[in-house]
Every structure is written in C-alpha cells, then in structure tokens.
Design goal:
The complex is a heterodimer of chains A (206) and B (361).
Chain A (H helix, E strand, L loop, with lengths): L23 E7 L2 H9 L7 E7 L7 H11 L4 H4 E3 L3 H13 L5 E7 L1 H12 L8 E5 L5 E5 L5 E5 L3 E3 L6 E9 L4 E6 L17
Parallel strand pairs in A: 1-2, 1-4, 2-3, 4-5, 6-10
Antiparallel strand pairs in A: 6-7, 8-9, 9-10
Helix pairs in contact in A: 1-2
Chain B lengths: L2 H9 L19 E12 L2 E8 L13 E8 L2 E8 L10 E6 L7 H7 L6 E4 L14 E7 L4 H17 L2 H6 L7 E8 L8 H8 L3 E5 L8 H6 L5 E6 L2 H14 L6 E3 L11 E5 L5 E4 L5 H7 L18 E6 L2 E3 L7 H6 L2 E2 L5 E3 L2 E4 L2
Parallel strand pairs in B: 7-8, 7-10, 8-9, 10-11, 12-18
Antiparallel strand pairs in B: 1-2, 1-6, 2-5, 3-4, 3-6, 12-13, 14-16, 14-18, 15-17
Classes of the chains: A alpha/beta (206), B alpha/beta (361).
Chain lengths: 206, 361
C-alpha cells in the first residue's frame, strides 16, 4: 500500500455524539460498545426520550455501569431507558419492536465491533432507515468480517492481513473493499497463481 | 443528456411500441411534438396535451420527471422546464400544465398566448430530478398550488406499485416486500386555483387530503412531519415559503436530509445588463437585463452545458474566475457556503451585478 492509496468503500467511524435536533434517541450497543455509550451519556443530555438496547459479551459487560449511569446519575426511569438482552436474537426482536413504534426524527446510534454495527444497519433497514441515518462508533477491536469471493463464506473476527477461510480453507488476502450489505471485507485467494507462496501473516487488525 | 440515461433508454427492451419507436433517435435532437389539446384546468393554469409529430411512441419516463419546452419567440428562444402529468407508462402523449406567471419574462406568457392547437414544438427528453425513493416505508407528498404537477405522475407510479403487490405472484412467493404506504397533501388558495382535485379524488380516495385556504383549512406542516413513522420520505413542491417551512420543520424535528426531497424550478430573474468574458476564447458576451447568462451564451453561439434550466440540477455549473461586482445566486443547487465563496455560478438562473464577469469556459 502506498501513500494516498484509499478504498472509498472502507467506512470511517467517529465517536458517538448526540444529535440534538430529534424527537427521540435509540442507542444499540454490544460488549465493549457499552463503554462508548457511557461516554455518550457523559455529554450534555438531550431533552428527548432515550432508550439504550444492550447486548453484553462475556469479556465485556458494562451493564452495571450503564444501569448506574442512567438511573442513579442521570435519574432516568430504568424500565424505559435500558433494556439488556442475553442473546443477539432477543436484542434484534427488541429493536424491531422499538423501531416499529418509532417516528421520523428518532435518532439511531450504534456501538460495538464492526460486524455488529452493520447488523444494526441491516435490521434498521427493514424499517426504512438508511445507512447514513445511523451514527456509529467502532468499539474495542478492529477485527474484520471477511467475505470469501470464492466460496461466499463469511469468516468472523479476523485480526490478520491474511486469513484462512472458514469455509474452503483458502488463504485469503483481506482487502479494504467493504460491503455495507454484508458488513464484511472482500477476501481473495493470495496464492492462486503460485500455490504455497503466502507472504508473512501479520496481526494488523487487533 | 447523460450517457447513463442514453444507455438505459436504448438497452431497455421495449415490448409495447412498434418498430418505429422514438427511442432510436438521438436524444440531443430533442423531440418534435404537436399540441393536440389545450384546456384551462384552474385559474391561470393551462394544460397542454402533446403528441409526437411523426406518430411514434414518446420516450417512457419515471414519476416526477419533467421536460424542457423550447419556445421560439421573435429572435429569442425561451426554454422552461415543466413536470409531466401523464401516467408514466402511457407513451402516446405527454401532458404538462403551465401557470401564467405574473412577472413572466416570456416563457409562460408564450405558452398561454401564442401556443395554439396543432402547433409544433420541440421538447427535450424527459429527465427526473424528483424521483421517488425505492427504500421508503411510507411516502408523504406535499403540494402547494401549481406544485401539484410533479405529483401527478408520482401518484400513478405509487398506485401501480400498490396494485402490483396485490398480484398473486408476489403473495405466493411469500415476499416480505410490501409497497410503501403513501398520501398526498394538497394545499391551495381556493377551489378556483386548484387543478386536478376531482381527478385526484377519483384516483386516490382517502389518500388525498385537501387544504383550501379560502375555507380556513390550513396544512400544519410541522404536525404532519412530527407524526410520521420511521422510514418515511417526504416530497414537496410549491411556493418558496411553503417549501422553506417544510425544510425547516424537517430539520428541527431531526429528519435525516436523505429523507427530504423538494423540487422548485425557477424562472431566471431580471437584473441589470453586464458582460461575460470567456477565458478560453477571450470572447465577450453581452447579457441583457431580461436575459439569463445561459440564454446570452446560447445566442452568441456558445455551446454551454445545461439540463433543467431552473436552478435545480447543477449541470450548467461554471467556474467564476473574476468579477468587478457581486454574484446574484438564485439556484437551489449550490450550498450556502459555495454561494458565499463565489467561485461557482449556475448561469441558467443566476447572474451578476457587475460590469464584467470572467468565466473559466
């Protein structure tokens, strides 16, 4: 890769910030994304209703801190402000219910690893929410989901520049080309022309 | 016309038209049409039905499209954009409606006073700067007065989507895709100023909501926008004040900009005369007081780019190299920041208050 090289489909993520022109706020987070939500809650609070949907992970569970912050510090009604879910399926079901009852002007925020951010986008798209309508923060890991262009399998949590496809076992070069629909980067066979000639495998997405 | 539009037109298989289809003709040549009927549809609003001069099918278009009509008047040619009112799938005629502007430079006056049944006119191929979003869950259309025109073809497209989804094919396929719900809100000064109300009522039933100001019925735009479900898109066309009020309410309520659509075609306002200097040829072109920069360039034989001629599409953008006065931006294309910077101008509707302006063209 040389200076100035840039793949335009590669998403750029900032930090979450309240959109003060709004009718309501819905925040969806998983695992380490909970820390991003806590940072958001430290900013000047908007006057509209706030709802946090949280999916804790084994290594990253910020449920207690979120509960304290929302209820004890900010004085919000916990029953309406926080819903904690043990499984992804339960989270998506809850999100579906919330969005069904939502009006235009509901601002949507997502925090978690990159795959999670685009799962939120896919769920919200069923309600006519466009990609550009969602505020996102990539929390914790830079791990990538990688779509194998040969066997169409998506390998998750890839931390290296070259990864073994979980579907066909090919050695895939992880590109910057990103599909918002799949929430994954393009991976293509690195040694197709010279079998066995695989460069050093480096951890570059810790 | 863009290369893309050209490609789409030619590669699309055509099942309904005979071999002498108009699609093979060059788009740059424009379409030759004959005025078939003229009728008054409201106070000061006249409707024209146009059929192709050689009897071939006219190009198909999508809901919200417009055509630019060329109007030769004396030594000048006026070119104004008018929305197509006819159903998009109907290719034997086009319908447009023209309101007589009180301070018309000539375009709408020409259409009202000089155009007669049987007269030949040249129109540009249909172009859509006001297309319906394919991702919307609900469509809210808001028209004010003559601003009803682009919605005439849009409601036809939405009705067609609704009917298609009721067909057994989609039902048995178990498709989760349901067409968007839609409603049309139509505000007007009085019954006499309102075109097409009976026609729309027959088509839309409860989906049409009318607001007759003379009866004290007004549209609360903020309330309307506040109660829309997630995934709604709003479209508006009408008087400047109404459009601005809608854009402001949407912004304040937190509607993302991509869900808010508006269309306004402007007539070039009059101003004081000045001179354009073209950097490449060093040619100097005089712009008259009631002439747009684009019209002056065309009259001088300069092949300047354009599409909508109403300050909406941005195709005619030219770079300003210098001027000894100030720019008067009238378009809806450049951002407020770009207008302040003064490096770009839309010659179709904008002009300058100066002696000379140098353009990089």
């Amino acid at each position: 890769m040389q200076a100035g090289y840039w793949i335009r489909s590669k998403p750029i993520y900032g930090g979450l910030q309240w959109q003060h022109k709004a009718q309501a706020h819905v925040i969806i987070a998983s695992g380490e994304g909970g820390r991003a939500v806590l940072r958001l809650l430290q900013q000047q609070l908007p006057p509209q209703a706030i709802k946090v949907l949280y999916l804790p992970e084994a290594q990253a569970d910020h449920s207690h801190a979120l509960r304290h912050m929302l209820q004890d510090v900010l004085g919000l009604d916990l029953a309406s402000a926080l819903s904690r879910h043990d499984t992804a399926a339960a989270l998506w079901l809850a999100l579906d219910e919330v969005l069904t009852a939502s009006r235009m002007g509901t601002r949507i925020y997502a925090a978690g690893d990159e795959a999670f951010l685009w799962q939120v986008a896919a769920q919200a798209a069923l309600h006519g929410v466009l990609n550009a309508d969602i505020m996102r923060e990539q929390a914790a890991s830079l791990a990538r989901a990688v779509y194998c262009v040969h066997c169409k399998t998506i390998s998750h949590h890839v931390n290296t520049n070259i990864a073994t496809c979980s579907g066909c076992q090919r050695q895939l070069l992880v590109r910057d080309h990103f599909s918002r629909r799949l929430g994954a980067y393009m991976g293509l066979m690195i040694d197709a022309e010279e079998p066995g000639n695989v460069p050093d495998i480096l951890e570059i997405y810790p | 016309m863009s290369a893309l539009a050209n490609k789409l037109m030619i590669t699309e298989p055509d099942i309904q038209t005979p071999a002498n289809t108009s699609d093979q003709r060059s788009q740059n040549a424009g379409l030759k049409v004959i005025v078939q009927t003229i009728r008054e549809v409201a106070e000061g609003i006249r409707e024209f039905t146009l059929v192709s001069a050689d009897g071939s099918a006219l190009p198909a278009f999508s809901g919200g499209s417009h055509i630019v009509v060329s109007m030769p008047s004396g030594t000048r040619i006026y070119r104004n954009a008018y929305s197509l009112l006819s159903p998009p799938q109907q290719r034997d005629h086009y319908r447009i409606a023209v309101r007589l502007q009180e301070n018309s430079r000539g375009g709408s006056r020409f259409m009202h006073q000089e155009v007669k049944v049987g007269m030949a006119l040249e129109v540009a191929w249909p172009l859509n700067l006001f297309a319906l979003s394919r991702l919307a869950r609900k469509q809210v259309l808001v028209a004010g007065g003559i601003g009803i025109t682009p919605f005439m073809s849009q409601v036809q497209e939405l009705l067609r989507q609704a009917q298609a989804s009721q067909s057994a094919v989609l039902q048995t396929a178990g498709s989760k895709i349901t067409p968007p719900d839609f409603e049309l809100h139509y505000a007007y000064r009085s019954q006499d100023h309102a075109a097409y109300v009976p026609e729309l009522q027959a088509l839309l039933g409860d989906r049409l909501k009318c607001y007759d100001q003379s009866q004290g019925v007004t549209l609360d735009i903020r309330q309307l926008l506040a109660e829309q479900p997630l995934g709604t898109h709003v479209y508006t066309c009408g008087p400047e004040g109404m459009v601005q009020a809608l854009l402001q309410s949407a912004d304040e309520l937190g509607w993302p900009p991509a869900h808010v659509h508006h269309e306004e075609f402007l007539a070039p306002p009059v101003g004081s005369p000045f001179t354009i200097k073209l950097a490449s040829s060093q040619q100097e072109v005089q712009v008259g007081a009631d002439q747009s920069m684009l019209e002056a360039l065309e009259q001088a034989g300069v092949d300047a780019p354009y599409l909508c001629r109403g300050g909406a599409c941005g195709r005619c953008e030219l770079e300003v190299l210098s001027t000894d006065g100030t720019l008067e931006h009238h378009d809806h294309y450049l951002s407020a920041e770009e207008k302040r910077a003064g490096r770009k101008i839309m010659p179709c509707v904008s002009r300058a208050r100066c002696d000379v302006i140098e353009l990089n063209f």
